[in-house]
Amino acid sequence: MNFTNDANRSDPRSLNSGPDFWGLLDKKWQMCSKGKMQSPINIDPSSLLYDPNLSAIHVDKSTVASELINTGQMPRVRLFNTNRWPSVNISGGPLNPYRYRMQRMDIHFSSTTDFGSEHSVDSKKFPMEIQIIAFNSDLYRNFSTAVVSPHGIAALSLLVQIGKNTNEELLKITIATASVPFKRKRVELMELKPWKMLPHKADYVTYEGSMTSPGCHETVTWIIINHPIFITAEDLDTWSVLQQTTTQEPEPRYIAPNFRTLQDPHGRIVRTNIRHHFKEHDAECKKRLNDTWYRSNPNRTETIRSKTIFHRRRHHAHHHADFELL
Question: Of 100, 140, 204, 294, which residue is the catalytic one?
Fold first, then answer.
């Protein structure tokens, strides 16, 4: 089953069937329609709660072996957790005091540059979202147990923006898509470095939510990094050839777009470690489009002064920009 409804392909922004009926298709999926902590959600800057106790997120700098799979619903990178290859642990921030072992990466995207991500920031969508999914290896022996258990899953969300160069590790995966055009196709990805996909910044927002595919288990701590990684428009277009079917059909059914619709936050608190203050701009900073006070929940007194910067400052080598989402 695909995330979208073919009848609505003309307007993929309003996926008003398909995912909305998951809870009716299988009793095990009832949480998809009845849950009050569902994901994804829109990150509203005006309701963020600054939490000074949120430490930086740590991702092990391990090189791993993995495979890219076309599941028919999404492209997925699955890690080989074997003795030969070290596991990748994620810890810190809202995950404390536990360690979470990286299991896979789920990739959501569209065939256009306007939308494709599952989460949005201030109602803005992004062309792609990479979700690094990890399970609590301190409490549970495996992913299947953790996903239905409290504090079971951590999901690290990387929002992807169009840029002049593609993130080096994302490029490895992008090139591999040529080998998995159809459902159930898979190809090995050797020496992948997941930590290199993360921006060189520690800012993030976090909330308690769910898996974004059936059965929508509400066991996920979401961490959305406040800086995008980049992909070129040409490389993004490479992903659009992935299909839902096992073989070529006269009328191809493409995976894209494969995002779930935004869910009602139901008053959930979204915390952040972002506490920016006005600073002198670098010599290269030419333009600031918006300086905004981000205020917490009206019932609280915390405020966050943060800057939304939509210009880009050049970095050396493969670094694209100091570009903030919030």
Answer: 140
